[in-house]
Amino acid sequence: MQDSSNFEIFVFILLLLTACGKVGDPQPPFIRIPEPVKDVTVTQSGYTLVLTWTNPARYIDGSAATNLSRVQIRSNGAPLTTVQVAAAGQPQSYTMPVGSVVGIERAFTLVVETTQGKLSDVSNAASTTPVDVPGKVTHLAATADQRRIFLRWDKPQEHPELADAYIIVRTDAPAEAETVTETRYEDIRYQAGKTLAYQVTAVRRVGETMIMGVGPEPVTVTANDKTPPTVPTGLDITTSDMGAYLTWDPNQELDLAGYRVFRSERPDGDFKAVSDRLITTNAFLDPSYRPGLHYAVSAVDEFGNESPMSVPFRGP
After folding, report:
1. Are residues 186 and 142 part of one domain?
2. How many structural domains is the chain composed of?
């Protein structure tokens, strides 16, 4: 009877050992140290330095970074400041004034810290030498005319000699920024009735790099053409048996619709149009001419804007 009990105990122990199976290999511990930042850049905009980088997405063991806390920013190897991590794996930036370091090279590096105080290796270094830049442009104005928007401005009052070019941004299409070297710009993307906002910034060229000046300077315009053509000039009259043949210098507006010709007995008023329709060339034959009549011409664009009359011209 005792032998039977011992046998049952033996079988139970054997089954228990079989159920446990083989113990697996030991796993390496998690290493919650962030990967180092590898894409630090620094640019100058006005008298501001802008650092940009991408926060690490993983720890050095390959697992997802979930407890990033701060970014330590160092300038020329010395601690400068710390900022909170916005999000793992996402771009981030930090701005600082240039201050009194114009002409002095500065190198920036980053170290990422976790909530447990674990530190990443030092990032790549990004260097720059801040320089003086042009100030804001002045007297910026925008006008809708001739199926386009005309922008005009004056050079900055501060460091105008450093303004090598100008960058124009239309805020509804910032990716289509334009660079010009003169103090004017024409936008042919004309949409009648739409309100458009522009920003103009002077830039300085240093080698192959364009450094933004102080700014930008904004301006807003509604694309309704209310600008009349220029006053016609060069009015002349040649008489013949057929009447008086009037000519004048053609206007150069792209949206010109035509001209109106006026005549009067007196040079100081009572001018009346000689035709109900616009004259589409810069010439007109008046078969009703009489010696001593006075003539004047105005110009009209496609939007109905009309110039003042020209200086009256007396026929022979």
Report:
1. yes
2. 3
DSSP, collapsed to helix, strand or coil, labels residue 193 as coil
Distance separating alpha carbons of residues 200 and 166, to the nearest angstrom = 7
pLDDT digit string, tens, across residues 71-93: 999 999 999 999 999 999 999 99
d(CA 33, CA 63): 10
Tokens for 135, please give them.
């100030």
Closest CA to 137 of 154, 162, 158, 159: 154
Same domain assignment for residues 58 and 96 = yes
Residue ranges making up the domain that contains 59: 41-128
Task: Quote the pTM value.
Answer: 0.75
**What is the rounded CA–CA span in Å between residue 237 and residue 316?**
8
- By the 8 A CB rule, do 140 and 213 touch? no
Residue that the structure tokens 């900055």 belong to = 156
Distance set, CA 36 to CA 52, 108, 109, 118, 119 (Å): 14, 14, 10, 12, 9
Instruction: State which amino acid sits at residue 241.
Output: D
3-state percent breakdown (helix, strand, coil) of the chain, nearest 5: 10, 45, 50
